[in-house]
Amino acid sequence: MSGMEIRTPVCEKGIGHVITRPDSPDLIEGVRIQPLALFPDDRGYFLELARFGQGLTEGFPAGSTQVSAALTYPGAIKAFHFHRQQTDLWGVPAGMLQVALVDLRPASPTFGRRNTIYAGDLRPWQILVPPGIGHGYKVIGERPAVLVYLTDRFYNPEDEGRIPYNDPGIAYDWELQHK
């Protein structure tokens, strides 16, 4: 598939910038974060993942937006993949993820930058992942996690690229950091 140039950077081993607030100046160019609307009460909670055409879904076309979900077991790593055209919007309604992002766009001012975002029960955030950003995650904690994601276009296998989770150029350190 033609389109955006993608290149694996050469990074030092680590997890990059840990993002602790949605307006962090260390965010990769184009990545956006917004807290999810969570309404707890004595029965549990209600979590609003997205309103089409509002917030981070603004610009997602109604005719081609896809909503999908993945349940992943504790300790499992699903990384890395990227898209040349597709934008993803992630929300984690159950469990906790260590989300790893890396800018694969040589023309980007943040090329090679890595972000780590902890999202899920303890930090209910939406994460907008634009084209050209390598993304993946590890389930942390003792129970499975559920990732619900919206894409601005239907799945197209020709738009998706894969990079091994242990790629030596990205050098993302999936080990426990605070031992």
Radius of gyration: 16 Å
Mean pLDDT: 95
Strand arrangement within the widest β-sheet reads: 1-9-8-11-6-13
Strand content: 35-45%
Instruction: Report the structural category.
Output: mainly beta
What can be said about the biggest beta sheet?
A: 6 strands, mixed
What's a quick, concise take on this entry?
This protein is mostly beta strands.
Main features:
179 residues, mainly beta, five-stranded antiparallel beta sheet
Describe the protein.
- Helix content is 0%, strand content 42%.
- It is built from no helices and 13 strands.
How are the elements arranged and paired?
Layout: E1 17-19, E2 32-35, E3 37-41, E4 44-48, E5 66-72, E6 77-83, E7 88-94, E8 96-103, E9 114-120, E10 125-129, E11 133-140, E12 145-151, E13 160-162
Parallel strand pairs: 1-9
Antiparallel strand pairs: 2-10, 3-4, 5-12, 6-11, 6-13, 7-10, 7-12, 8-9, 8-11
